[in-house]
Every structure is written in C-alpha cells, then in structure tokens.
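Posting for a labmate who doesn't have an account.
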Amino acid sequence: MILNRQFFAQPPAPNPAPAPVPMGEVHVWRASLDRSRADLAPLLSEAERERAAAYRFDRDRERFVAARGRLRQLLGGYLGVDPSAVAFSAGRFGKPELDRDQAARLQFNVSHSAGSALFAFCCAGPVGVDVERISPRVDLAQLAPAFLTDPEFEQVRRLANGKANSALLRHWTAKEAFLKAVGVGLNIAPSELEVAFGNAESPGAFRYPKHRALADLFAEYPLYECEGECATLVAIKGLRVVWCE
C-alpha cells in the first residue's frame, strides 16, 4: 500500500484515541472489519443490535458490528465518555452525526468497503471520507458520465486504460467524500462538481458553479490507492491530517 505520508503527522497516535482532536487537525483511522472483535458487540445500542440482526449473511453482520463498535470506541476516547453512551442522530439529509451536545465538540465520518473501514474526526468543521474497492466486473467508463464534468470526462478519455480506471476511481471517492462532508448527499449532482486533485505537497480543490463559496471551503486530501482500492478525505482547507493506525 502506498500512502501519501507527507500529509500525515508522525508518529501515529496511540490506540484508542486518548484526547480531543486539536483544532488544526483531522484524524484518520483505518481498521479491518474481518478481525474477530467480540468485545465490540456490547458497545452497540439496542437499535444497532436490531440493525445487525437484520443482515442476512454472517459476514455482513460481523462487519457492521465491527465498524459501529470501533466507531463508538474511538468517539468515546475523543469525547471522554463511555463508548456505549455515545448518542447518534441523523442530519437533515440522513448524514449520521452525534447528538447536539456532542456534535458541538466533534465532527466525524465513516466509510467502509468490503473488509476495510476508515474513520475521520475533526473539531474544526465538517469532514467526509470515502473508500471504494471496485470489482473488476464494474465498468467505470460506463458510469463516468454520471459523475464527471465534461472537462473531467475529456481528460480521463485521453488516458490509457489502467490510468483511466485509476483516475475514475479517484474522482469517485473525492466527490463522494465531498458530498458526505457537506451533508447533502446526492442533492448535488457529482457531474456538476469539479475536482482538481491534490498531491503530496498540496491538497486538491473543488469547483461548484452553483455554490462557489461552499466549494471553496473544502480541500481534497488523497489518502491512498492500491490494488483497486482508493480512499480520499475531504475537510475544510488549511488543516493538518494525522494518520492514526
């Protein structure tokens, strides 16, 4: 796995998180959901346990328990409360968030694909994270017109197959993370949102003609890309991203 370590402060934070996130930082954690973590199940609320029980397949149920339990564990560490006491609610567009009192102290976002999960935490403002693992059976080129602007589509079209798939996957994760950060879901059409990718020296940027001020608030922080899996973080500009693993 290749990580853009230049974006991340070293050394990694201890596990679990022991203190609030500093105002100038975003903390990102990665976890495997396929490790047996029976200790996490008791942390879930009754509603979460009912949701887990509704999964048809054991693997999906176990991954949900691992992701939600780990999230509670990390939030409890940052907030200084028992993980089972963390209270969730849904935002206006369905984005999961903490209840009003806790949300004033911390913003978070979660993404998982297959057995990988990413957790992002920030006190300075909204944050979005997305990890995607695309099956070889998925034809990203067919999906491209739905989530690329016309200039982006032309740029990708000129690339060789391998590089084109990589670029499409990165566009996908960047835009999904942006939509999660602003909390409006698909109420913003991805094909109207343009992203200029960041690199090891400088985060990327967004352009959305219908709301330029909103797009100007956020930066794109590429996390990693390897073997068909790609992850991107979106947070307000000027923050320092700390990789906690």
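Reply:
Got it, the structure tokens are right above this. The CA atoms of residues 166 and 193 lie 18 Å apart.
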